[in-house]
Every structure is written in C-alpha cells, then in structure tokens.
Amino acid sequence: MAKSIMIQGTTSNAGKSLVVAGLCRVLAQDGYKVAPFKSQNMALNSFITKDGLEMGRAQVVQAEAAGIEPDIRMNPILLKPTSDKGSQVIVNGEVLGNMTAREYYKNKEKLVPHIQKAYRSLTGEFDIIVLEGAGSPAEINLKEQDIVNMGMAKLSNSPVLIVGDIDRGGVFASLAGTMLLFDEEEKKRVKGMIINKFRGDITILEPGLKMLEQIAKVPVCGVIPYLQVDIDDEDSLAECIEKKAIPNVIDIAVIRLPRISNFTDFNPFEYMRGVSLRYISALKELGEPDMIVLPGTKNTIEDLKWLRSSGLEAAILKRAGRGVPVFGICGGYQMLGRSIRDESGVEGGGEIKGMGLLDGSTIFRAKKTRKRICGELNTVGGIFANISKKAYDGYEIHMGDNGQNHMLEQKGNVYGTYLHGIFDAEEINGEILSALLKEKGIDEKDFRSVDIRAYKQQQYDLLADAVRESLDMAYIYRIIERGV
Description:
By secondary structure, the chain is α/β, with parallel strands linked by helices. The chain folds into 2 domains: about 5-230 and about 455-480, Rossmann fold, CATH 3.40.50.300; about 250-445, Class I glutamine amidotransferase (GATase) domain (Rossmann fold, 3-Layer(aba) Sandwich). The protein has 16 helices and 24 strands. It has helices at about 15-30, 55-65, 100-125, 150-155, 170-180, 185-190, 200-215, 235-240, 265-270, 285, 300-310, 310-320, 330-335, 425-440, 450-470, 475-480; strands at about 5-10, 35, 40, 45-50, 55, 75-80, 85-90, 95-100, 130, 160-165, 190-200, 220-225, 250-255, 260, 275-280, 290-295, 295, 325-330, 340, 350-355, 360-375, 390-400, 410, 415. A 6-stranded parallel sheet has the order 2-9-1-10-11-12, with helices on both faces. Helix 1 crosses helix 15 and helix 5 packs parallel to helix 7. The longest helix is centred in the N-terminal third of the chain and has 23 residues, at about 100-125. Belongs to the CobB/CobQ family. CobQ subfamily.
C-alpha cells in the first residue's frame, strides 16, 4: 500500500496546489510512482479525462507534474458553483445534481464511501500519494463534517504539512492560530510548517521562524520564495484574472464573466512575447483590442444578462461590426448565437435572445456532454482561415446543445466552438498570432507560437528545482516513511 503525505494551508490561496505539484514532480524525478489526491475540490475550471469523466484542473496539473495520466480517482468530488448559495455536485466524474450549500452539507456523509473507495484504489497502484486540503483546516464550524482537511488526513492516516502565505501578511499568526484551533489528535498529525511566497532576505526572517517553532511546537521545514513559474495553480487562478495587464503589440481581451470557467483555455497567449491577455469586467476597460474572447461560464443565461446590462454586449457588437475578431468558447460560444432556451431549468430556466453574431440556437439538455476529442478542425474562412484542418486535442464539457458539437462555427470574423484546449496546439495558436500581426502590418519574425506541452514540462522542472532548494527534502522523506 502507498505511503502518503498531506499538504494543508492556513487559507485559500496559500499555495497548496502548487506545493503538491512540486512535491509530485520531485518524487517522480526520484523514481517514485506518485499520484495527487484531493477528496473535494470547488472550482469552475474542470477537465475531462480520457474516459469522459470530469475532474478539477488542479489535480490534472499535479498528475501532469507527476508524469501520469489524470484519473478521476484523484478528485472524486467536484463542486462547481452555480450561484452564491449553490453548486453543481459532481461525484466520480458524473453530475449528481445541483444542491444548495445546506443540502450538500446534509448529504456529505453519504459521499465518504466514494472518497474512501477512490483513495484506497490509488494506494494499491502507487508508491506515494500526495494529498491536498481545501481552504483552511481550522474552520471550527465545519470540523464535524470535514472530509477534505483533517477529516481526510484521518481517513488516509496521513502526516500533514501546513502551508502559510507570507506575501499576504500575518503568516506567523495564521500558522500559530491554525495550530491553536486543532485538537490534540490533529496536532499530532502535523509534522511541519512551510512558509510560502517569501520575498527578500531570509536571514531577517529566521528569528521569527525560531519563535514560531517554539509556539507551534512543530518545525518549519522550508521557506519557498515567490516563484515566477507558469503553472495552473487552482489557488492562484483568481490572481490570474485580477491582474491588470497593459496592452501590448497584440492585445487580446477576455470578457470576465461573473461565473467565468475554464479560463486556462487562454493561457497559451499569456506565454507569447508581445501579447497581452487582459480580463475585462467593465466597459471602460475594453479599449480597442485586436481580438475579443467570450469564455466559458457556469450560467450562460445569467452571464449574458450581465453582459447586456454592463454595456459590454453593445461594445462587442460594435467592434465585431468593424471587423474585430470575436472568439467564443463553450458558454461564450452559446452567447454568440441567436437564442438560448432552458426549458428544463438546468441553469435556472428561461429563454433569452443571443447576440446574433452566429446562426445557431442553444437548447439546454438535462444530460451534460462530456468527452475528450481529437482530430482536425473543419474548414473556416475569415481572418483565422489558416487554422482550418489544423490538428487539435481537447475536450467538450457543456449542458447546452446547438447541434454543432466540436465543430468550429464561423461567420465573418466571429468564431465559436465547444472545444476546450483549442488554443493549446502550437499550429493553432501560432496561426492566430500570425493573423493578428498581419492584420496590423507587423513582421512576425520576432514573435513566436507556443508548444504548450513542452512549455509546461519545463515549468514543472523549474518548480521542482525550487521545491528541492527550499524544503528540507530529507526531513520530508522521513515524514513519508514514518507516517503519523
């Protein structure tokens, strides 16, 4: 049976996901067969496995770092928020239904066998499991039904390391306070603390580390610097869309819908020299981009209403009329059509007129479409005609149906597709970049497309290097070997 170690954090955005990914990479480099595990993930960025099941992207990233295929057992429960009070609940990769927070907590205990089965199955196939917690393990009002932090540590009998984010401030108080709120059994599970996102001279920090160890009565087993690595960290995805990029040679504006999902689709453009990827949430921020992107969303009708009331729809229509390319993915694609109808109440019910930039109409079905797909794009015209027949490897994940499925629909310079991952292919993102540069009369010799897969592997290695250098890996190996 596999040995295990669990990474928990003092708060969301402490860097748990990235630390787990780094450890997975280090352990894999050292010859171990390692897998990540997170019993319950709440995220709008999801992924479809080869067997057509849905899981959180954080565990996909961690599996990639470990050099293995993403597996639904690594994330048996996924919550996809549909409103401030409710989520779509996905168990073992399939939709269980929509629940309010109260309904979910009432039914949590019934999900424990699914978690146990998934975890035990992994332990029979791997040498080491690196578990990830969620949010804070010190939420005393939620402890009784916890299945993702100390509750999961107990189920898996895992030793725990606690990560704190020093960049936010208050890291000593948050680590010490977290330890204070643990009961005696939980305290015994904690074998160390990690300070994350440190900037500056570590010698100035060292007196505080010694005092923290005396207060918490567990060692600090590493200080990780603020890393400049391009890795999809679930905890830092909000930072990605919060930052205000300055328009560059090529300016791509992604509309930041209130319920935006799967915006990792656009990461390849982040990595391109001379390209700015800006997330726009207000009309005054739009400016005159070279391309406008409508991303996926967990509630297409409500987000289209927001787009309309914010004035952004009118601005997009105006720019599309002037020939600015508009590209919709999944929910954004549905918005570009003539109408959206939700007679079954999948996303709250109702019918709404679409933007009318494409000809299709969407009807929501009770059954979700989930599938991995690869092949060649169909033939299209317009500014991006050169992406016709280019190879892709991606996935579909949507409730609505407009009859197009994974085909790329095009009308003028407006494009839409259900295909997540369409921009990952270097041939496709390269042709889009070339077309945008050509439109502006710019020589493309100083610009480059991105081989996203090779780039990711390079970034995982950089992360592993930082983890090796920053953490006491000899001590961590002893923790893994000894257990609790």
